[in-house]
Structures are given as structure tokens and as C-alpha cells.
Amino acid sequence: MSDKIKTMKAFLGICAGILISIAFAAPLHCAGGASSTEREKMKYTLKELEYPETALEPWIDAETVRIHHGKHQAAYVEKLNAALASEPSFNFNGSAGELISKLDAVPESIKTAVRNNGGGVWNHEFYWRGLSPQKSHPSDELLSAIKESFGSFDNFKKLMTAAAVGQFGSGWAWLGVLPDGRLKICSTPNQDSPIMGAKISPCGMIPILCIDVWEHAYYLKYQNRRADYAEAVWNVINWKRVSDRFEAAVKDGKAEL
Questions:
Q1: Is the CB of residue 201 less than 8 Å from the CB of residue 240?
Q2: Alpha-carbon span 181 to 183, nearest angstrom
Q3: Which of 35, 39, 46, 120 could form a disulfide with 191 if both were Cys (CB 3.0 to 4.6 A apart)?
Q4: Which of 72, 107, 129 is at the close of a domain?
Q5: Does an H or E element contain 210, and which?
Q6: From the DSSP assignment, how many helices (H) and strands (E) are in the chain?
Q7: Residue 68 region, left (φ>0) first, then alpha (ψ -120 to 50), else beta?
Q8: For residue 105, what is the DSSP state?
């Protein structure tokens, strides 16, 4: 075989190797998900739960948790990111809580989408972190504030449950801290939140506990029996977290997840 033919075969072999590498590299890139540019647009991600999907049973079933968190909450995250990506000049890099507490700074073209979906993101994170399979009790300071504001712990539970059951349509029942340190129970529709300010929420307080009363929070297990769900959820309240939120609200004047 002549040197010319050997050189040509070597050249063709190198070219074939390059083409094969490109062919295999392309599918790997696609399998890896979004491009770096697309990932940069994903300002917010779906936060993992602090416990397994089965952990809240029998009070909240695993299938409800899986769909509620993995489908409904995930959709709010996706739509919030899409809204923000549609307004690239609005470069906000804070938390979801900071975003929805400063809605006046959000461009009008996406303000409603941010209010609805940003509220959906933050409210759900707040809700899940307020639940736990571990039994706990309110701190002495929080229990004292509850008794001072509502007369007794039992009366507080009765009033909070009534707020959850009585919310017309989808929404939330909240326990929060007023500027003078007293506690207040309030409800909001849709994905509105007390941290959105007086223009949207009449609550005027820093939230420390919430009950989600959208139907997707309870319908698989309780169907139309919202009252049964609102009673059951007391069995999985994370009172340690709620007590920490109470302390932060009183000392620092801010809402904590």
C-alpha cells in the first residue's frame, strides 16, 4: 500500500472519529436537560420536602402530598420562572418571599403572574415547613401569646379551624404576629399572602402558621369534607418551627420560612 493511500485512510479515520463523537455528544446534551442559558432563567426551583411523602399519614396521605408538592407546587415554580424570563430587563435575584413582598417593583406586564405564582411558591414552602411527623409543642412564649390573644389554646384552634373552613373558595388560613406582639388569625384567597402588604392582604401581620385550603390539599382523602382535613392537620403541626417563626417575628420583625 502506498504512503498516499495510508495517509488518506488515516485522515478518513480521524474524520469518522470526530463525527461519531459529535453524534454521541448531542444526545447527551439533550438528556442533561436545560442549556446553561435556560438554567440561568430558572431563578427559582422546587424545594424538596423535609420528610418523606408518607410521613404525614394517616392525616395527610402520601398520594396527596406527592401530587400537591410534585405537580401543583411545581407548576407554580415553572410559571413563575416563565413570567420572570418574559421580562429580562427585570433582574430580581432575591428570594421568592422578597419578590412577592415587593410587588410594586414588579413590571405591570407580569405583576399578576408573579402575584399568583410567586404566592403559590412561597405559600407552599411556608405550609410544608410548618408541618412535621414529629410531635412537638408550642414554646412557652408562643403558648402565652396564644392564651393572651385568644383566651385558651383550645379556643385558638377552634378559631383557626373556623377560618380555614370558612374561607370561600380556594385560599389560606393564617396565624400571625401584629406590630404590638399580639396574635391574629386571618384568611386570604387564592395565592395571596400576608407578606404581600396592605394593598393585597388585609391581615397586617407577620405570618407564623398557615393551613392550605385549596382543594388539592385535601380532596383525595377528604373529598368535600374540608372541616375534617382542617381538624386533622393539627396532628402534624411543626410547633417547633412555628415557635421559631414567632420569635423571629417578635424580635426581628420578619417572616421566616
A1: no
A2: 7
A3: 120
A4: 129
A5: strand 206-212
A6: 12, 3
A7: alpha
A8: G
For position 219, which CATH number holds? Answer: 3.55.40.20
Say how far apart CA 73 and CA 218 lie, in whole Å: 14
Per residue of the chain (257 residues), give pLDDT as tens.
444 444 444 444 444 443 333 333 333 222 233 344 444 556 899 999 999 999 999 999 999 999 999 999 999 999 999 999 999 999 898 999 999 999 999 999 999 999 999 999 999 999 999 999 999 999 999 999 999 999 999 999 999 999 999 999 999 999 999 999 999 999 999 999 999 999 999 999 999 999 999 999 999 999 999 999 999 999 999 999 999 999 999 999 999 99
Does residue 121 sit within a domain? Answer: yes
Write out the residue range of the structural domain in which residue 124 sits.
62-129
Domain boundary among 110, 129, 148: 129
Same domain? For 105 and 145 the reply is: no
**Distance (Å) of CA 14 to CA 1, 8, 23, 27, 47:** 19, 10, 14, 21, 46
User: Is the domain of 120 the same as that of 156?
Assistant: no
Q: Encode pLDDT of 88-129 as tens digits.
A: 999 898 999 999 999 999 999 999 999 999 999 999 999 999
CB 195 within 8 A of CB 207: yes
Identify the CA nearest to 72 among candidates 199, 192, 214, 209. Answer: 214
